[in-house]
UniProtKB/TrEMBL annotation:
InterPro entries: DNA_helicase_UvrD/REP, P-loop_NTPase, UvrD-like_ATP-bd. ATP binds at G232, A233, P234, G235, T236, G237, K238, T239. It comes from Streptomyces iconiensis. It comes from the Bacteria. PROSITE patterns: UVRD_HELICASE_ATP_BIND. This is AAA family ATPase. Residues 211-556 form the UvrD-like helicase ATP-binding domain. PANTHER family: DNA 3'-5' HELICASE, UVRD / RECB / PCRA DNA HELICASE FAMILY MEMBER. Gene3D superfamilies: P-loop containing nucleotide triphosphate hydrolases. Keywords: ATP-binding, Helicase, Hydrolase, Nucleotide-binding.
Amino acid sequence: MTGDTTPGTTLGDELTDERGYIDVCRAALDRTVDAARERVLEGAGVLAGQHSGDPAEEGVAGDGASAEALGRHLRSQAKELSEAPEGPPFFGRLDFVPGEEAGEHRGQRYYIGRRRIAEHPSAPPLVLDWRAPVSRAFYQATARQPGGVAVRRRFGWAPGSAGTAADLTGLEDEPLDGAAGATAQDGLASRIVAGEIERPRVGPMRDIVATIQPEQDDLVRSGPAESVCVQGAPGTGKTAVGLHRAAYLLYTYPRKVERGGLLVLGPNSAFLGYISEVLPSLGEVGVRQCRVDDLLAEREVRAEDGQEAVALKHGARMAIVLQRALYARVRAPEEPLAVPDGSYRWRLPEDELRRVVEETRAQAPPYEVGRERVRARTVALLRALAERRAGPPGAAWERRMGRSRAVTRFLDSVWPRVTPEEVVAELLGSREALAAAGQGLLSPDEQSALLWSVRPRSPRSAKWSAADLLLLDEVAGLIRHPEESYGHVVVDEAQDLSPMQCRAVARRSRFGSLTVLGDLAQGTTPWAAGDWPAQLAHLGVPEADVVPLTTGFRVPAAIIETANRLLGALNVAVPPARSLRPDGTLRHIRVSDPAELNRAVAEAVGTALGSEGSVAVIADGARTAGLRTALEAAGITPGAPEAGELAERVTLLPADLAKGLEYDHVVLAEPAEIAESGPRGLHRLYVVLTRAVSRLEIAHARDLPHAMR
Ligand SMILES: Nc1ncnc2c1ncn2[C@@H]1O[C@H](COP(=O)(O)OP(=O)(O)OP(=O)(O)O)[C@@H](O)[C@H]1O
C-alpha cells in the first residue's frame, strides 16, 4: 500500500486518525437510524390520534391524507436507513488546496462514500454522497486538471468489510497539485483500483462507486433530459454505468426522475437477478427492473409462430401495417346526419361531416382521442345551427346532443370504437385484410406466413403467440398512449431488441430520456441491430449521442485477444476492446474422443474449484443436459442462474443465457457447436468467450471454428 502522508506523520499515524474518523461516522449513522425510527413511532402516534397535547405538534399531520403521507415517508426513511447494507462509510477523501483555484472548497477536506453521513440533517456532512457535485472531482481530477484538488486519497478495506475501523487496511494518496502532480499515478495505476477490478467474483454484481473511471463518470453524470447510447465492448462497464447513472439521476433530480419513475430493462431473469442488488446497495430501492416482455399486458400465450412469422411480427414494417389496419376502420361519412331534438330535427350535410373526419384524421391523434374530437366537432356544428335559430344553447344541451343516439350511431359508423384484439385478430385472420394493410409492404408470401390457418370465432377466443403480444401492444398504443410512462429508462443489451420491442419501450418513455447500452458485436437475436442510428430511431431517440467504451475491466488481455479475432466475421463496425488486465490465462483442452468431452469438462471444473471464485460451464443448449450428468457424476452440483441460483460456486449455462454475466473461471465446451447454432452463432460464441474474469478453458473434440483460429 502506498502511503504518501503529511510530512512528519507515518502511514500508521494516518491509519489511526482515519480509524478514529470511521468511529465518528459510525456513531453518527447509528444516531440517524435511531432518530428516524423514533420519528416513525411519533408519526404513528400522531396518525393514531394520540396527540401529545403539545400545541407545537398540532398540524404536523393535520388532515388524514397528509398524515398518511407523513407516515409513509417516515416509514420508508427508517426502513431504508436500517436496511442500508453495512459497509465502509467512505472510500475516498479529497483535500482541496488553500488557494483561489479551489473556489468555495479552498482548504476543505471531504470524505466521500456511498451515502451522506451527518450528525443531524442540517449539520455539515461528515461524509458526502458520491453523487454530490463536489464528489465529481474525486472521479475527474487529474494531475493536468486538478480543479483545486491537492490530494486524492483512496481507502483500502478488507474484502466484504462491514465497515468497522479495524477493516481499514490501507490508504493511497495521489498528490495532484504542483510539481508532485506531474508525476502522479493515474487512477488505473492505483493498487486499490487494480485490486477492485481483479477481485474474484462471487454472487451478484456489485457497485463500482469507489472506482468509477473518468470516461464512465461522464456518462453517469449526463443530464436528465439527455438520452445517450453506450456502444461498449465486452466488460467495459456498460451495465455498471447504466445502473450508476440511474442512481445518480434519482439523487440529483428526484422530482423529475423519481416521480416520473425509473425503469431498468434487461434481457432475461438470470441477468436481472445478477444485477438486482446494485441499485439497492446504492440506497435506491424503488426501481422497476424487468424484461420488455414484462411491460406488455398479461395474456396467456397459447400459440407458436413459425420462424418467418416471428421475424415479420418483430419487424418495423408491422407498425405501418397495424396502423393501416386500425385506420381502415375510419370511414368517410356517406350520408347527411339528422339529429332529433324534441320536436325538431337538426341536419348536417355530408360534405361538412366528411371534412370533420378528414381533418381529424390528418391531425393523427391517438385513435380514441380522434373519436372524441369528431364527436366534439359534430356537436359544435349542431350548436352553430341551434344558435342561428334560437340563440346560444347551454352546456347541458351540448352534452345531450353529444350523447344522443343519432350522434353515437354516426360515430360508430365513421370512427367506431375498437379493441386491440379486434384489430389484430381481424388482420391475421383475414387474407383480404392482410392484403389491404400490407399492400406495397408485405409480399404475398409474407402475407401467407402471417395468416392464421384457422380464423378464431371471435377476437376473444383468439390464441395469441408471444410475438402477437407485441402487435397488441402496438395497437393499444395507437388507440391511446400507455398509462405507464417513465421519467428515465435504462435499456441494457439494447442491440438485441427488435424494432417492435423498441417501439414498446419508446411508447413508455415519451416524456423521459433513455440510457441505451449495448454492443453490436454481441447481437444474438434474429433481429439484432446492425447499426445504432436505426435502433435509436426505433427507440424514439434518434438524436442520442453514441459514445464508445473500449477499456475492458473484466476480460484479461490474452482472452480478449482471442475473442477479438472473431470481430472480423461478425459484420459490425465496432471498435475492439483493449483490456486493462495483463493477468489471466487461456488454456485449450483438446479431447480426441468426442464421447469423452463432457467428462473432461467435469474434470477441469474439479480442478478449477481449487482456486478462489466462481466457475461457469458454458455450452450450446443441446449439450447442457449431458454436461449436467457428467458434472453430477463427478460430485459437482451446478446452479442454474435462470432459476435464481446465483450463489452456487459452479454454474451450468446454455450459451443463450450467458449474456451480461461473468465468472472468474469459464470452461467453454465445444465452441464449434455454438458457432453453428444458427445464423447468429458466431456472435453467441463472441459473448461466451468474453465472460471470464481470470481464466478461460476451451474444451473441444472438434476443430475450433475457422474465425477463431
Ligand atoms: N470502474 C470500474 N471499477 C471496477 N470495476 C469495474 C469498473 N467498471 C466496470 N467494472 C467491472 O467490470 C465488469 C464488467 O462490467 P459490466 O458488466 O458493466 O460490463 P459490460 O460492458 O456491461 O459487459 P458485457 O457487454 O460483456 O455484458 C463488472 O464486474 C464491473 O463491476
